[in-house]
Write the structure tokens for this entry.
Amino acid sequence: MSKVISNIKELDFSFEDLQSMPAPRKVLLVKPTHFDVEYVINPHMKGNMGDIDKIAAQDEWDHLRNAYKELGLHTHVIDGERGFPDMVFCANQSLPFIAEDGNKKVLMSVMHADQRKGEVPVIQRVYEESSYEVHHLDENKFGSFEGMGDAIWHFKKKLLWGGHGFRTSKDVYKLISEKFDVPVITLELVSDKFYHLDTCFCVLNEHTVLIYSKAFTDEGLELIHAVFENVIEASKYEAEELFACNATSPDGKNVFIQQGCTDVNQNLREHNFNVHEFSTGEFLKSGGSVFCMKMMLW
Ligand code: ARG
């Protein structure tokens, strides 16, 4: 079902019509060896140039990696490349997909900032070694696309949520919808601190999402509320300072989230999630947290 939906009038299918998709069981992680803030390409990075405590960053990253292992997921770890201080945010360089016949495909990103463009071929190698069919966007036809920073799969469903406005251009989603034969619901982002969809929108399970509502338009909020039964909202403080919505639930039950999101965590527990808190303070200085520090793979 190829279709791009941007407002509620275009939403002409029900949740039951959506095809299912297996949950990925592998996690790609990039070591933070060369992680740093060397330039400013989002408002969170301002004032943090050269201010990364490398030992603390490594420690935070180790805790996260171990937690994925403890959940029983297979971790695929690669080295970061010198000269690419943001490569640790490996949610951004690609969008993987699995078709009904089990064929694995991936669409590689066209990064918005020149400083990050060189990360894409390094991540592409992982897909080539893992038997994915690799697809590219025509850079002359489309603007930028930052993978799962902006394009987020619904939990176990062939439905893509497509953020646009800062790092990804909206017209990319028509092509993605046709290429993967999936419906895409687009969401315009309106606040520069929430420059990627994964900073303000976290799919927790089939029926539950965690959002920061001020990052969206009214049209977007209508779509979110139409599809999800449970919409948990983060406060400005927890969303902006602690990146609460950059959490992740690899299995629809356990949630990995930045430490200290007190209100969101209470809400998550009331919805029967197991909350695991992590310190990602060094990565917050670059505008990223748990969700964007990994890529789920089949
Ligand atoms: N410094 C990185 C950038 O601005 C952070 C990326 C975080 N990734 C994310 N999906 N939110 O590109």
User: Anything to note?
Assistant: The helical segments are 54-70, 119-129, 172-180, 218-227, 236-240, 262-270, 281-284. The longest strand covers residues 183-188.
